[in-house]
Protein 1
Amino acid sequence: MKEKLEKELIDGISLVEMSSYREKVLVDLKEKIKTPSRIAKSTNIGASHVSTALKELREHKLVVCLKPEKKQGRIYKITELGEKVLKYI
């Protein structure tokens, strides 16, 4: 289990390090739960880039969508793994 967590952590760090958009979105979510439009506004990143970053972060279990069934007004939260990744970048 520890080995798997280490791999997930390393993969997450690598993913975030490769993109300033992913890093900014993850840092922004550390403050509080937000919608993609609020993330775009507070980070000055275009909505399409925020959506892409959230999708990639979600696939790597760094963020979670709290209302995935909704088409609009989805809210996102950083995960424990996402918090760990931030400590290393």
Note: The longest strand covers residues 63-65.
Protein 2
Amino acid sequence: MYQTIGEAIEVIGVYTNQTFAPRKFLWQRQEYPIEKITFITDVRDGITRKRRYSVVSGAQSYRLLFNRNEETWVLEELWVES
């Protein structure tokens, strides 16, 4: 199940054919290389546009949320085995 984190992160990525792809993120002073993007979806929170990326780094799955209005990143959730 996913555990809510909700912490600000820094993300580095590349643009290819006008589409952004995150390549790694920095969380709690540790760098996490993104090996695979499993899902991308656009969401709205009122008038705020956001883009959610489900990614894999190592053996872990994460959900990263990009606020398109403020141009900020949040580590939204982390998959934990229960």
Note: The CA atoms of residues 8 and 74 lie 4 Å apart.
Protein 3
Amino acid sequence: MPTTLWNERASALKIDGRAFIGGQRTWAKADQRFDKLSAVDGRKLAEVARCDGADVDAAVAAARRAFEQGSWAGRSPAARKRVLIAFAALIVKHADELALLETLDMGKPIRDSLRVDVPSAANCMRWYGEAIDKIYDEIAPTPANSLALITREPVGVVAAIVPWNYPMIMAAWKIAPALAAGNSVILKPSEKSPLSALRLAEIALEAGLPEGVFNVVTGFGHEAGAALALHMDVDCVAFTGSTRVGKQIMQMAAQSNLKRAWTELGGKSANIVCADCPDLDAAVNAALGSIFYNQGESCNAPSRLFVEASIKDRFLEQALAMMSRFQPGDPLDEATVMGAIVDPAQMNTVMGYIEAGKQAGAKLLAGGAAVRQDSGGCYVEPTLFSEVDSSMSIAREEIFGPVLSVLSFTDIGDAVRQANASPYGLQAAVWTSDLSRAIQTARALRAGTVHVNQYDSDDITVPFGGYKQSGNGRDKSLHAFDKYTELKTTWIRIG
């Protein structure tokens, strides 16, 4: 679709910013609202309900009522499957609208919203729908005079608190397995990107989810998010976001009803390229494409690049030749590869790290400036630093922007030690032609996912999550059901 048509559709879009509780659209009980501005150009998109504890109470009550009545939890897995597959089909049907909301909300290129985010959310919903009637319970190998059944049951009311960088995908990773298992769900999207979540709630109702089973409360983390984490009638909270907030969520869960708390948190992923890399072109493409994708606003972005000293100059020469491909452009232009930073606060954070890198003595090879400043949006050039030391903040802290730090090494063991010397452990990669080195390095790297001779391959069938302060539990794959189900043992005496 031409850019002019996307702009026309954006201008004609009518956005309802009310929360979704008990199957109904509603303003916050205190009638507080906030303006949602577009990351693309700063235009006002909508007034959005600023929910607080009273609204969370209402959403939890609706979710609990639906759960206890069994309108969803009491359905057979096959019946839930049919609804979730219908939900996925409707997401696809409304793909253009959802993609436009995603791009206007947080600034990612429309090509990515349309080709990646919407299809991924639909596929996630469909996959968990298909999976739920294929999971079997167990019978334990007990003595002949007893029968022990091990069954899975839904935990009850699940609060899903998701970030702004992949609003639909992160929501789908949480709500799809939780709903498939029979839970009621309250989704709290980021105040920076609430619009697609609200539309998903309407679509879910259209697909056949009973009222109260899926609710969306909008607002700020310290108000609506904290109220969910502290609520005594929420059985599970699943959070994706920063490590700092994740720690607060876990503390709130502990000081309330000791609800299950699952966190998928920050990352500072290491990408190690050895001199015997089998395809240097592919390594350069992956290094740049992965850090600059989604404007660098990805928790798993490989922001630390370790290149063996003997090939560093050649690697950087090729990387610099590619930098022009990632220049920021209009997110509503389907040719744009890198869009807008989500808001001024995040852009200031990114620019602060770029300045800190320069002050610390890192060599700025490319980028480092704010651009398109007359657009009304926030845009930062793809930025490449070399001569970076592991003690520098740009090599230690999560930037969440298009900033790549290049470090060199001569010994693979030293590269692994530096890679592991981080509080994070989300993802990592190693590029080498030596199979033994690849396996040994993958085993040594303390990360939830290790890529070998590639980066960013992804599939709903594999778990996603990290070690250390990158969080606990896993999204995606059948392992996600472990977060949203209780294991019950039933002993039966025979004879």
Note: Residues 230 and 256 are 5 Å apart (CA to CA).
Protein 4
Amino acid sequence: MPRGYEVERTAVKDEARLAVPKGARLVVLDERGLDWSTERFARLLATSTAFVIGGADGLSRAVKDRADLLLRLSSLTLPHALAQVVLLEQLYRAATLLTGHPYHRS
């Protein structure tokens, strides 16, 4: 086993201790998650929501099992940093949709 690999696998196992704010819905972003429209995603934000994006090794089964929802951002495989940008853009788009701002045009 290559040096450093064990450290990465340990990090994935340690995700099971993920701290989620009390009362927050845990949404795990996963390539096998549900495919939602922006409008439906916006309605998700009506409640306190915590999002989790996996790293290069994905997420542990324990984290996925804790999730209230598995959601995918795209059918394409996205690098971690790009997934963060896509999520941020969708959060902004959802917020503008909810406030009636013209940024979102469906």
Note: The helical segments are 5-14, 38-44, 61-66, 80-99.
